[in-house]
Specification:
Elements lengths: L1 H23 L4 H10 L1 H13 L7 E5 L5 H8 L4 E6 L2 H13 L6 E5 L11 E6 L9 H11 E10 L5 H11 L9 H11 L3 E7 L2 E7 L7
Parallel strand pairs: 1-2, 1-4, 2-3, 4-5
Antiparallel strand pairs: 5-7, 6-7
Helix pairs in contact: 6-8
Bound molecules: S-adenosylmethionine.
Length: 222
């Protein structure tokens, strides 16, 4: 596992700039066009997460694998009482901290340089979410168990779908870059979330992703 963390840390340290540009669209017209075409899921999973975090006001959130902190800052702007973002990449966490400072939100948003499994939480959260994380986790069950343990109401997660044309292409492309990537069937997600202790599940197909809301108590099925 620690070898995996090292690989991920190095990968995301070097990709931080390129990753941020996908959101900011600070690119050539051609690259922006290609991102809109091939990375549409990234914008759609953001919309899915924000919708399923409602109502945001006065709630607390845990952002696992927070990247450059875009989601955490957005939730703070919507009135979240407290957001904690975790990431293993020092470059990403530094960017998060700069954003929080720029937006004068350091009293409500905190960014911690840690793997979730090592995170020593001092409280639980109304909602946790992990977006663009399970793609890079070879053993997701301990991560899901820890999310369940820290989540009072619901966890929101995006899993890349197994049966898509893009999965093998992405597998090869990221392998060349030295970054393993993993894909999921709906059946496996159901089993994993159940084994992690979530009571019920809502799975929505969003492009090449399964976007999931897993409830700590009995709420939904499908
Ligand atoms: C694709 S980025 C997603 C960032 C953000 N969630 C988003 O969607 O904008 C994946 C992030 O997960 C982080 N990450 C990977 N493995 C992790 C782990 N075990 N614990 C915490 N963060 C991790 C990486 O450093 C990277 O910043």
């Amino acid at each position: 596992m620690s070898n995996e963390i090292d690989i991920q840390r190095n990968f995301w340290n070097s990709e931080a700039d390129a990753f941020e540009k996908i959101y900011s669209q600070d690119k050539s017209k051609l690259s922006t066009f290609l991102d809109r075409l091939f990375r549409k899921d990234m914008y759609e999973r953001l919309a899915f997460t924000m919708k399923n975090c409602e109502p945001v006001d006065r709630r607390t959130f845990l952002d696992v694998g927070c990247g450059n902190g875009l989601y955490s800052i957005a939730l703070c702007k919507k009135g979240a009482a407290r957001v904690v973002g975790l990431d293993i990449s020092p470059v990403m966490i530094e960017r998060c901290k700069q954003s929080a400072q720029r937006e004068c939100m350091e009293d409500r948003v905190h960014f911690v340089l840690t793997d979730l499994l090592e995170y020593d939480a001092d409280s639980t959260f109304d909602i946790s979410y992990a977006i663009g994380l399970f793609d890079y986790i070879s053993n997701p069950l301990p991560v899901l168990k820890k999310m369940r343990q820290l989540t009072k109401d619901r966890a929101i997660m995006a899993f890349p779908r197994f049966w898509t044309w893009r999965a093998p292409v992405r597998k090869v492309r990221l392998k060349i870059k030295g970054c393993p990537v993993f894909f999921y069937t709906k059946k496996r997600i159901a089993r994993l979330t159940q084994d992690a202790g979530f009571a019920s599940l809502k799975v929505t197909r969003v492009g090449k992703l399964h976007c999931v809301v897993a409830y700590s108590g009995n709420r939904a099925s499908g």
